[in-house]
Request: fold
Amino acid sequence: MQKCNIRDLTSAVAPDSSMHSKHVLTLVFLVLVGGCGEDRDRGSPAALSEAALAGVYSGVFPCEDCPGIAATLWLRADGRFFFRQRYLADQEFEAVDAYSLGRWTAAGDRQAIELSGQGPIRTFTHPDEDTLLMQTESDLEHRLTRDPGARDFSDRIRMTGMVRLRGDRASFTECHTGLVAPVSKGGDFARFRHQYRSAGRRNEPVYVELEGRYSWSGDGPPQSLTIERFVTIREDAAC
Reply:
């Protein structure tokens, strides 16, 4: 890193009392301050807008006791995120997927982003608009790179939310993201409908746990949610 030393620069100016000397000293000082500011900011994360950061990022995180963790993070332009971490298979264990979803926001004077939702808050810095670095206690780099060829997030994941059934039409509001989607009549919808009606609910929202899969239309709202496996209704809970 370049050192900023006023004595080194001013010593090149003859020590006289002329107006010319004062002007030169002023110019040297302004150049020095500008140069120091540039060195101080070099290597710091860029202050980027949410629109510039939206997209899908992927990479492989280091892992002490496994071959690696294949990570995919979808930052939606509406402030929601979906995060998948796949613990890669080895000779002893099969691959295991872990999911998190919620909302992401700019933090630290827009020098970083925070993910809040399921699990702990995660912080990423972004040295440029195509790179995210997850902040961890490890000395090893946890890097994700923009993946423009990635498909929409359509994994089957465990979710909680509020479902309202009116006739045979239902809508689902996911707790952590607040995303609202019509519920498809396929999958395990019939079992959910039976449990809803058995609970004596009529046109009222109810808290449910399920495994579901979203269908998307680009980066817009979800077109639908398919209940792949209905888990339970909890009448004493809410988002």
In short: The CA atoms of residues 175 and 196 lie 18 Å apart.
